[in-house]
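Lab notebook: predicted structure, single chain.

Context: the supervisor wants predicted structures on file for every construct in the current expression panel, including those that have not yet been purified. This is the next one on the list. No modifications to the sequence; it matches the entry in the shared construct table.
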Amino acid sequence: MKAVNMKQQKIKTVSATHLSPRADRTSAVISKTAVNKKRTVINDRYEMRIDSDRRALWERAKVLSGFGTLKDYLTHLADLDAEKVIEKHEKMTLTNDIFDMFVVACESASKPNDALLAASKISKEQGF
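Prediction complete. Output recorded below exactly as produced.
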């Protein structure tokens, strides 16, 4: 899709130009694309319905947290939580005695057998 600048607004072509019944004329469909302050084009959208009590609670927390919009506040919270969840699943904390046992196991490991080498080859081929 080709981006064009028209009157300082970012727009994009949604569909390629198509021929009208008269072969000498073409037309294109154009829609606006949101652009945030960092000049990043935002194409994805997520909508949800919430009850009014929850909305009021979120609005109050938004104001107390110093955010200008509810979207900014909720995006901030979702980003923080996503980072925590991913970090929790990607890192492991070991006690000293467990870590020492891990080091000993790594240092005294024997050569991999044929089954382990085959599994390693398959996992590399599949991008793991």
